[in-house]
Structure formats: structure tokens, C-alpha cells
Amino acid sequence: MGRPPCCDKANVKKGPWTAEEDAKLLAYTSTHGTGNWTSVPQRAGREINSISCRLKRCGKSCRLRYTNYLRPNLKHENFTQEEEDLIVTLHAMLGSRWSLIANQLPGRTDNDVKNYWNTKLSKKLRQRGIDPITHRPIADLMHSIGTLAIRPSPASSSNSSSYLPPTSAASPPATLPVFLHDAPYFTAHHHQHQVVTKVDADAPASPVDEKQNHLHQQINWSDFLADDAAAHGAVDAQAPQANALGMYQEGSVAAATGVVGGRAFGDVVVDGASGGDADDGAGDASAFIDAILDCDKEMGVDQLIAEMLADPAYYGGGGGGSSSSEMGWGC
DNA sequence: AAATCGGGCAACCGCGCGCAG
DNA sequence: CCTGCGCGCGGTTGCCCGATT
User: Fold this and answer.
1) Residue A259: in which H helix or E strand, if any?
2) Fewest 10 Å CB contacts: which of A4, A43, A131, A265?
3) What three-state secondary structure class fits A318?
4) What contacts A231, CB < 8 A, 6 or more positions away?
């Protein structure tokens, strides 16, 4: 039953690769391509040199070494300013989906991008007063947290007693309102984990006072989650795309209300809730997931990114420039 | 000159998904 | 249909090296 083991793990070498091992791996991939990594250790080396023994590496390790270091056309020089800007932009939109981000950076690997982010860019953003996780001003975050502590919502706590948000070091509840404040970000970010979350259907479609709406969303943040199961179908398949496109419209009415790309998030949810299947919570919730997944398939995240990058409005309406300041994350 | 510290990066680990058997 | 491996991914670790004391 099942496939045979990929390698003898007790007889596998770990640690840094030697030049000889690199040569074996390169020679193998140049003649056989990069498929079937599990067979690489057995065949690499043996075919190159009749005296040499096979490559004593796990296929997984071979793949990693090749994709991160040996692959042709890899860039080994420093990241350019344009690449930095693009990484920050894409991270704001996609979160830590490094492979997707790296796809937009020719010659860079996900490991490259991830390391660069962790060692350089996240620090840079902090120095500029930007939270590298939410991509929002740290001052705003502190204000939001303080506001939440002062203004707990009795209504929301009673309504959401059946659901408690997961508490973990990675996502403490106190940070949730910050995500939720920025509906586009929240939806885009949580989409990647396939968490179905209803966007604020009760939020005014076009509030006069953005700050009021901000507060409204903070106070009722748990309402979003409490109604997950009842997040009714008919979800606009364009929503995730639209969310992403609206990322840097912070401060604009569009971002504050969730009206992005000509659609209002509130409208989307309300439309679904008023549909005929409004009571079929579980079924519609799965339909919601299906809609999102279908959207992913149909659109393709790459296409989404391409469209976003092609849209000058994404850069804060600055006329298509891509410098840090124009994008809104710079100092 | 030696010791310590911190940053950068390559590599490993563990998980989820898809698919072969 | 079930089991378990291959693959890809994100998170984490540990080593190396330069800067500082």
C-alpha cells in the first residue's frame, strides 16, 4: 500500500553542501531536468562519475538546494529599491506567501525574499513607524488597541458568546480589530488561510465620518466572526481581488467602507443575506468557500497581482509611481 | 588579540494538499 | 476508498562572519 519511502533517512547527509555535491546535482538536473526529486540522490553522482558514490542527500534537500542556490538565472546581488517596494506592496496584500511574492521577482527565490524581509525590510518599516504585519502606522495600532480596551461592546459580546476568537501568540485578540478596521486587508489576509469571514454588513455603505466607522468596526469586531456560519452565499467572486486592489486606499472613503473596485462589501453580504437560502447557514458557508476558491482558480493570484500592479490607483493615486513615499508605506 | 555580540543567510523542520498505489 | 508518500510552502534554526568591546 502506498509508495515506497523516498530515501533512507538514517543514511542521509545534512548540513552545508559541498562543491562536489553541487556539481553532481547540477549535472543531474542539466540532463534530467528537475522532476522526481526523490530519484535524484540515487542517480546523481552515479551517472556523472563511475567512481563516485551516489549523492547522500534527501531528495527534499536536493530540491531545496537547487531551487534556492543552483537554479539558473538566480540573482545573487542585493535587492534593488524597486524590488523592495514590490515586496512590501505584495506582502501588504498577500501576507507571508513568499512563493507568490517571489514569483513576481525574477531571479529571486521565496527563501531569498523571506530572509530579506525578516532581516531588513521588517526593520526598515518599523523604523519608519509602520507595523510590518499590518502595514499600518504603529501609532494607529496603539490608538486602536487603547480604544478597544476602553470601549468594550456589550452588544457584540452578547451576540458573539458562542464564538471566541482563537487566542495565540501569533494572533492575539487585541490585534484583530486592527485587521478588521481595514476590511480589504482582513479579507485578503484571512483568505489565504481559507477562513470564511463575513465583512461588516452592518457598516454604513457610505459613512460621512470615517472615524466613526472606524470605531464602529473596532467595537463590533467579534460580530464579524460570530456570524461566520451565517455568512450567506452569493458572495461576489471578485471580492478578494477587489480587496487587494484597495489595500493602499487607507483614509479614503473607499477603503473605510469596503467599497473597492466599484463594489461595496456591505452590499455583497447584504445581497447574500437577502437571498432565498438565507437560512441555510452551513451550506452557504461552504458555498462561500467554494466561491473564493473558484475565484482563486479562475483569476489566478498571479493575474491578480499583475492587475494590481498595472493599476496606478493602487499606489495611492499618485499617478503610477512606485516609490515608497507614493505607495504610502514610506516615511 | 581575544571574547562577545548581532546580522545575514543557507538549510532544516513540520505541515497541508494532492495523488499514486 | 484508504493509506501514506511526494511536493511545495512557510516558519525556524544554526552556522558563519564582520563589528564591537
Assistant:
1) strand A259-260
2) A4
3) coil
4) A196, A197, A198, A269, A272, A284, A285, A288
- The partner residues of A264 in beta bridges, in order of sequence, read A259
Residue A316 CA, nucleotide B12 C1', distance (Å): 40
Q: Are residues A66 and A143 in the same domain?
A: no
CA distance A281 to A303: 32
Q: Which nucleotides of C are covered by protein (CB under 7 A)?
A: 2-12, 15-16
For residue A178, tell me if it sits in a domain: yes
Cell matching residue A158: 452578547
* CA dist A4 → A20, A38, A52, A54 (Å): 28, 11, 25, 19
CA of A52 to C1' of B9 (A): 30
**A139-CA/C3-C1' distance, Å:** 52
Instruction: Report the run of H or E that residue A40 belongs to, with start and end.
Output: helix A40-43
Please report the pLDDT score of residue A304 as a whole number.
Answer: 63
Q: Which domain holds residue A48?
A: 9-70
Please indicate, yes or no, whether residues A37 and A164 belong to a single structural domain of this protein. Answer: no
* Claim to verify: residue A240 and residue A154 sit in the same structural domain: yes
Distance CA A45, CA A54 (A): 5
pLDDT band at A31 (very low <50, low <70, confident <90, very high): confident
Between CA A322 and C1' B15 the distance (Å) reads 36
Contact A232, A281 (CB under 8 A): yes
Cβ of A262 < 7 Å from strand C?
no
Give pTM, 2 decimals: 0.56
**Residue with grid cell 463594489, as numbered in its chain:** A263
Q: Are residues A27 and A163 both part of a single domain? A: no
Residue A129 vs residues A15, A81, A90, A137: alpha-carbon distances, Å: 38, 19, 19, 6
For residues A155 and A30, membership in a common domain is answered with: no
Instruction: Place A56 in a pLDDT band, splitting at 50, 70 and 90.
Output: confident
With CA atoms as reference, report the closest residue to A58 among A18, A134, A6: A6
Q: Is A287 found in the same domain as A159?
A: yes
Residue A234: phi, psi to the nearest 5?
55, 35
**Checking phi first, is residue A203 left (phi over 0); if not, alpha (psi -120 to 50) or beta?**
beta
